[in-house]
Design a protein that fits this description.
- The protein is an alpha/beta fold.
- The chain folds into two domains: 96 residues, Elongation Factor Tu (Ef-tu), domain 3, CATH 2.40.30.10; 163 residues, 3-Layer(aba) Sandwich (Rossmann fold).
- The chain is built from five helices and twelve strands.
- A six-stranded antiparallel beta sheet has the order 4-3-6-1-2-5. Strands 10-9-8-7-11-12 form a six-stranded parallel beta sheet, with helices on both faces.
- Helix 3 links the parallel strand 8 and strand 9.
- Helix 4 packs parallel to helix 5.
- The two termini are 26 Å apart.
């Protein structure tokens, strides 16, 4: 059974990386009063290719819900159809969409969280961040982070491919619990920032957090050392006090998952979405 679709009109397009041919696209669905979705979900897009075949492609939403608008982040793909079709779409052009879909969403209750992304995997992380620290719409100025520490670890090859860098740096400057960590895998000699792969810095975050929490954990254990086992003293302690959300190519996702399971993390603490 075919899913009902809506017509989305492109209202703004900007190339945010000439070297990677990455485009930020802003759409509006005029037939809807609002497009409700959870941060991190994706939307499916449909178009007919040059051979007359209907093609469909899923794209993570690069924005939080805002009336009847949504935003995407797409790269040109050599020999591909859909991403190039979107990159070439003129302002005012339209596509058919359906959704939202997906379970790559922030888990409740909100915990300290590590967002890990490479390439256009930054899209749902931007959606998460806009929801946590909204700057537009009816919730503008609110802080939904509840004071939880949020780390965004973003890795790419070159400095010119740090998509939405200005936005994330501004959020980090305005909110002391949001930490923006960017690393380049092919950094030139003049690059003064971090180098290497995202899993290395995820490991640093976990190590440092564990070091800071150790005294508190020891105090809790000492405080309950004489309590009978039958008493539900530990029942109020949440199952997880931190989650990691990963989006990118399979090799990166697997590397980060392996790093975290090496620390003894449960698989339910590690939420991921792969796009290859």
């Amino acid at each position: 059974m075919a899913r009902p679709t809506q017509t989305a009109r492109l209202v703004k397009k900007a190339c945010i990386s000439e070297s990677a041919q990455c485009y930020h696209l802003e759409f509006v669905i005029e037939e809807l009063a609002s497009l409700d979705f959870a941060a991190g979900q994706f939307i499916s897009t449909l178009a007919v290719d040059g051979n007359g075949k209907l093609q469909t492609r899923a794209y993570s939403l690069a924005s939080a819900a805002n009336a009847n608008k949504f935003e995407l982040c797409v790269n040109r793909v050599e020999g591909g159809f859909f991403s190039n079709h979107l990159a070439d779409l003129p302002e005012g052009g339209t596509i058919q969409v359906h959704g939202p879909h997906g379970n790559f969403t922030l888990r409740a209750p909100l915990t300290d969280s590590i967002f890990v992304a490479t390439g256009t995997g930054i899209a749902p992380m931007r959606s998460f961040t806009q929801w946590l620290f909204p700057e537009a719409g009816e919730h503008a100025g609110q802080d939904r982070s509840q004071g939880k520490d949020i780390w965004l670890v973003y890795g790419t090859r070159h400095e010119s491919e740090l998509y939405y860098r200005d936005y994330f740096e501004r959020v980090a400057a305005e909110h002391e619990n949001f930490h923006y960590i960017k690393t380049l895998s092919r950094a030139p000699a003049e690059w003064s920032g971090l180098r290497g792969y995202v899993q290395e810095y995820v490991g640093h975050i976990v190590d440092e957090r564990n070091r800071k929490l150790a005294p508190a954990v020891e105090a809790v254990v000492a405080g309950h050392s004489s309590v009978a086992v039958a008493e539900p003293v530990l029942a109020e302690i949440p199952a997880f006090d931190i989650h990691t959300y990963i989006c990118g190519l399979n090799n990166m996702v697997s590397a980060v998952r392996d790093k975290l399971t090496g620390y003894g993390w449960h698989k339910k603490q590690i939420i991921f979405e792969r796009y290859d």
